[in-house]
Design brief:
The structure holds two protein chains of two kinds. Chain A is of the alpha/beta class. Chain A contains 17 helices and 22 strands. Chain B has a two-stranded antiparallel ribbon with strand order 1-2. Chain B has a two-stranded antiparallel ribbon with strand order 3-6. The chains are: A alpha/beta, B mainly alpha. At the A-B interface, strand 4, helix 10 and helix 12 of A face helix 9 and helix 10 of B.
Chain lengths: 512, 345
């Protein structure tokens, strides 16, 4: 639909973009338009092509077809730096900064002004502080980036992207690790930038956020454009239907427990895993809880409350300084993940890029890997068995892949997550720890994973479920442990689990 | 739904070193036909003399057998994301141990066993530093590279020891059914290693370790054990190479044995298509890479290039093969070759 009285061309106009990888066509003839002074949401299921479109736009990949125009002029960015020079600034889903450099160095990277090759460090630091101040953030700009929690690293990435005199700002899942206050802050800045005439591309899975801040919405499905709509004219249900290509039951009202029958499976009396006074200096302080078979225990808390740290202690990645863990009544001390696995534990990490996938190995190899590692080098899984397992999980988890032999790095983030889940399920664990399993996954797949967790619970697995999405925790858990500032704050069971109460406990209000 | 291999076969990186070998063969043929027209090129001629095969192709495999063995172990170490700079020194140690024991009059079995055991221990020492003490591989193996030669010289007391045991000389000079023993042994080692890596999960473990070590460990891989294995194997291979080298010249020269061979081995692996950063590896590629290097050396000799100049064509060849293996270069050339096609509507 052409603009009628608008004489200036749109800020960004992509027409007919095609992108192919080995064995996969990620984008077929996609159009995408962004006007100056608008926030434009880009939505789609996993594998729809959102990340690929962003990468083509920002010069990471050259398109195999189509044309790109910025403010009317044809462009062909050859690299991310090229795109930045053109005025397209990006913040990626996976924080693409240098963990071993300081915050100030990361913000100034590639943009430092140098006099005869010498850097002005004071100016660099001041610059970084100003960039952060724009987000109302304050931190030690000399701190090593990798030492900061993931949420902070993402904020630094956003500060870096906002730093430039950009014409177009692309945010790829920027809110994935942010809490409500931080999200509100980000939105405030986005609105200010919009008023200044910037065009903002906002890729996200959080539908609430889409409606809170976007002017228009573009939906992709299976590498094709479904349509472009003003946000005010597209009701939520219609949006989800278009994303999935099928009618979907309204699931967002389900913040109260509506399937008591399903949750009536009696968890066994004796705890599978018990934790007493568990602590680690600088990470956790004296935790006590028990996990039972047939139960989904949610671990809720704000960022920095110690949830992932707990998981890492349970799984043997970090060593505890105090307290003990016992499995089936017997005390254990896990010196490595290998030992934890031997006792029937499994851990699906939240950082799938560095702690999860084996990027150049195939989907099949990734799926069978933990099982094979458990069996050792000599008891090899027959190829036929490997193929069977891979095919089974690709089907059961609806992993979108052209085949089991494709390198897993070619899959979209959500499908990679499913491959990792398949890897752990293949080991048939007694206890599975899921750390943010639905992060970066679309609505349809989220529902699938929640159903899967319920099924696992029914089969007698013990599940420790960590998620920043409180609604998800409420929907899925039969018991919830609340952490606050690295300490145990409360434990809720059954009917006590409800959204407002959880939020109060997490935030630190009066005990309910 | 097609179940393809991870990389389609025609895209295998092994084609490039193979092409390099073909090119060298053609160069030799052209040179010889130009200088001695009408005569069958010496470079390709294999005859039967003194009860065995004879000719330049035979020499290539015979001379190249040491580099081939080194490349085998080196491939596995590089695949885990590491490197082993000590193989040359371990060769010297193995040769020295063998020579000293032979001089004492020990049986061949004991001599071979002792030399190989010492080499294995050297490899394990590297492995312990890398896997246990978490020392970076380049640093850990550099230690043995420097110290090892000193150890070799200590064993021989600084002398060059002559070996006159016929049975030992067979390793580097003997023939089995007309075929030289050394290349036969090497072929057996490659086949054996290939079978072991694919029949067990070791190949998968090595590739996973090199691809993403953290993820592998979190998935329960006994990463320290795998690293110990590959460094031990590399040390063992260096021992075999050292024995072949000492046998070939019928002497243990602790100063010169294995000199710079670690670099040749690394080149063979890289040229063969295994990435230095680790992950997927190809034994076949390393085999071809080592043969390529030896073919080049023989070509230089055949063409009468003075030995001082010889490293230059070697460097050029390696750079060329690596460039062609690189995705970026291929894309650049393809863009130049084809006229830019109009963008589809």
């Amino acid at each position: 639909m052409n603009a009628t009285a608008d004489s200036p061309p749109p800020l960004l106009a992509l027409r007919g973009i095609v992108k192919k990888f080995t064995g996969v066509t990620a984008l077929t003839g996609v159009d995408f338009t962004v006007r100056a002074g608008e926030i434009h949401a880009l939505l789609g299921e996993n594998g729809a092509g959102k990340s690929t479109l962003i990468k083509v736009l920002t010069g990471v990949y050259p398109p195999d077809g189509g044309e790109m125009r910025l403010a009317g002029a044809a462009i062909r960015p050859r690299s991310p730096k090229d795109a930045e020079t053109l005025g397209i600034s990006t913040v990626y889903q996976e924080v693409n900064l240098i963990p071993t450099l300081s915050v100030a160095e990361n913000i100034g990277l590639g943009r430092q002004r140098s006099f005869l090759g010498l850097l002005n460090w004071r100016a660099l630091r001041r610059h970084a502080r100003e960039a952060l101040a724009r987000l109302d953030l304050e931190c030690d700009v000399d701190a090593e980036l990798g030492a900061l929690p993931l949420a902070w690293q993402q904020m630094v990435a956003i500060a870096r992207a906002l730093d430039l005199r950009a014409k177009l700002l692309v945010l790829d899942e920027p809110t994935a690790s942010l809490d409500e206050k931080e999200v509100a802050e980000l939105f405030r800045i986005m609105r200010r930038l919009r008023a200044e005439g910037l065009g903002i591309v906002f890729v996200t899975h959080f539908l609430d956020q889409v409606y809170a801040v976007s002017d228009r919405i573009t939906i992709l499905r299976n590498g094709e454009l479904v349509g472009e709509y003003p946000a005010a004219e597209l009701p939520r249900l219609a949006l989800v239907s278009k994303m999935l290509g099928r009618e979907v039951r309204d699931e967002e009202g389900r913040t109260t427990r509506d399937e008591p029958a399903a949750k009536a499976v009696e968890p066994s009396a004796a705890p599978l895993l018990e934790v007493r006074n568990l602590g680690r200096r600088g990470a956790l302080h004296s935790l006590n809880f028990a996990l039972r078979a047939g139960e989904v225990t949610g671990l809720a808390g704000l960022l920095g409350s110690g949830r992932t740290e707990t998981a890492r202690l349970l799984f043997g990645i970090d060593r505890a300084d105090s307290g003990d863990i016992s499995v089936r009544g017997a005390p254990v001390r896990f010196a490595s993940p290998r030992q934890a696995i031997r006792h029937g534990l499994a851990f699906c990490s939240e950082d799938r890029k560095t702690e999860g996938i084996l990027p150049n190995l195939s989907v099949r190899e990734n799926i069978i890997f933990a099982l094979q590692a458990k069996r050792g080098a000599w008891r090899i899984l027959a190829r036929a068995e490997q193929d069977r397992l891979a095919a089974h999980y690709i089907q059961a988890l609806r992993i979108k892949t052209p085949g089991p032999e494709v390198p897993v790095k070619n899959l979209s983030g959500g499908n990679q997550q499913k491959v990792l889940l398949a890897r752990w399920l293949a080991t048939q664990p007694a206890l599975i720890i899921l750390d943010e399993p639905t992060r970066g996954i679309d609505v349809g797949a989220k529902a699938e994973i929640e159903q899967l967790i319920a099924k696992l619970r029914g089969e007698g697995l013990a599940v420790l479920f960590i998620s920043s999405e409180i609604e998800e925790v409420v929907r899925t858990s039969t018991r919830v442990i609340v952490l606050r500032e690295r300490r145990w704050a409360a434990e809720l069971a059954g009917a006590e689990i409800e959204l407002p109460r959880l939020l109060r406990l997490m935030a630190g209000g009066s005990a309910a | 739904m097609t179940t393809r291999r991870t990389a389609p076969r025609f895209r295998s990186p092994v084609w490039w070193p193979l092409a390099g070998i073909l090119l060298l063969v053609l160069i030799n043929i052209a040179y010889e036909l130009a200088h001695k027209p009408g005569v069958f090129p010496e470079f390709l001629r294999v005859t039967w003399q003194d009860g065995h095969f004879f000719g330049m192709p035979v020499d290539i495999f015979n001379e190249g057998s040491r580099c081939l063995v080194l490349a085998l172990g080196m491939t596995l170490v590089i695949a885990t994301g590491g490197i082993d700079l000590s193989v040359g020194s371990v060769m010297a140690i193995a040769g020295s141990v063998a020579a000293v024991l032979l001089r004492q009059g020990d049986s061949l079995a004991l001599v071979l066993g002792a030399a190989l055991a010492v080499s294995l221990l050297c490899g394990l020492a590297n492995g312990v530093l890398v896997a246990g003490a978490r020392v970076q591989p380049i640093v850990a193996t550099l230690i043995l590279m420097v110290a090892g030669r000193g150890i070799a010289q200590l064993i021989t007391n600084g002398d060059v020891i002559i070996i006159d045991r016929g049975s030992f000389a067979f390793l580097g000079n003997g023939f089995v059914l007309g075929v030289p023993f050394a290349p036969l042994l090497v072929a057996l080692l490659y086949l054996g290693a290939g079978a072991l890596l694919r029949r067990s999960a070791l190949g998968l473990f090595i590739e996973a370790l090199g691809d993403n070590e953290t993820a592998s460990r979190f998935a329960g891989l006994a990463s320290a054990r795998v690293k110990l294995c590959v460094y031990a194997a590399c040390g063992f291979g260096a021992g075999v190479a050292g024995l072949l080298a000492a046998s070939n010249i019928r002497a243990a020269d602790s100063y010169r044995a294995g000199e710079n061979m670690e670099l040749d081995a690394i080149f063979a692996v890289v040229v063969g298509g295994t990435a230095l950063s680790g992950g997927r590896f190809t034994l076949l590629g390393s085999f071809v890479g080592a043969v390529l290097l030896q073919t080049l050396t023989t070509t230089m000799y055949n063409l009468g290039v003075p030995p001082a100049v010889a490293p230059v064509p070697k460097a050029v060849l390696i750079i060329t093969v690596c460039l062609f293996q690189s995705e970026t270069t291929r894309r650049w050339l393809a863009a130049r070759w084809r006229r830019p096609a109009p963008a589809p509507a």
